[in-house]
């Protein structure tokens, strides 16, 4: 799915609409970084999800989870990223990441309160 202001999360969409030249430069940087090495699409998506988890960014975890599903990654692939975070980032952060991933992979089962 191509990223346009209409299909971006609200904050990013507002920047893309208000500052299209900045958004274009940002998108070009992302593309250049993706093409700078030998990693395959699947691996890049999992790495980006892991970086989002480590950065404590719920929005980015949601975004990379949605993209991962759209690109054919399984729920189990995505959830393992959260489990791998446990020994490095700690149990609470790994569980938090798992709930963020499940917000997207299993929305019917997310009857818990939103993460702070």
From TrEMBL:
Report which superkingdom the organism of origin falls in.
Answer: Bacteria
The Carboxymuconolactone decarboxylase-like domain is annotated at 20-103
Gene3D superfamilies in alphabetical order: AhpD-like
Kindly give the InterPro entries that the UniProt entry links to this protein: AhpD-like, CMD-like
Question: Membrane spanning segments where?
Answer: none
What's the protein name? Carboxymuconolactone decarboxylase family protein
Organism of this sequence: Microvirga arabica
Origin organism lineage: Bacteria, Pseudomonadati, Pseudomonadota, Alphaproteobacteria, Hyphomicrobiales
